[in-house]
Amino acid sequence: MPAKRFAVIFVVFALFSGLYAQPVQAGDKTAGAEAFVNGMAQRAIDFLGDESITHDQRQAKFKKLLKTSFDMKTIGRFALGRYWRASNEAERKEYLKLFETMVVEVYSNRFGEYKGQTVEVRSARLDGETDAIVTSYVLPVGSGSEIQVDWRVRRKGGQYKIIDVIVAGVSMSVTQRSDFASVIQRGGGKVNVLLAHLRSE
Question: Of 11, 136, 142, 167, whose CB has the highest number of CB atoms within 10 Å?
Fold first, then answer.
């Protein structure tokens, strides 16, 4: 199922989502983006590692951080690809709501996978006028290999927003777009086929 494949690519996004705001001076875009990723990783680790809260409380914190830290409309629109233009306003509205619900449901069920991993930000570079690519590594506890995670961060309306996560060279957004396109194509090219699929997840 597309959601299962999505889970493999998106797991680090789920584990390390959060919000960090910091004033940024002109010419300091990469430093601000690095600080944002560092801060959000720590905030996520704080609630994932808090054994005093329930699963439902973690899910609520995750949903709040998802809304404030990730540009879900941009991510969702990209994931729908060319079918965004083929959809009407009602379909787009329902799709974005279902897309967010899918992310929350799939990844809140994976919170138990957190075993004390940490994130180390090592570099950042500008990519265009508004974006920065922040390179980080997820460091395992004990044995195991570190995993490279690149975050595409965009500054919009005075705030940073994540618009893509690249895990070990694989883009979350590109992977999800491919999965959604497969569902739509199998259903005859209609967006409502994807909506029905997401409703059933």
Answer: 136
Give yes or no for a contact between 154 and 161, defined as CB atoms under 8 angstroms apart: yes
The CATH class of the 2-193 domain is: alpha beta
* pLDDT by residue, tens only, the chain of 201 residues: 443 333 333 444 444 443 333 444 434 668 888 888 888 777 777 777 778 888 888 888 888 777 777 888 999 999 999 999 999 999 999 999 999 888 887 777 766 667 777 778 888 999 988 899 999 888 888 777 888 889 999 987 788 888 998 888 888 889 899 999 999 999 999 999 999 999 987
Q: Where are the domains of the chain?
A: 2-193
* Beta pairing class for 131-139 and 170-171: unpaired
CA 14-15-16 angle, to 5 degrees, is 95
Q: Which DSSP letter does residue 120 get? A: E
What residue type is 89 in one-letter code? E
Tell me how far apart the alpha carbons of residues 65 and 129 are, in angstroms, rounded to a whole number.
Answer: 25
The amino acid at 189: G
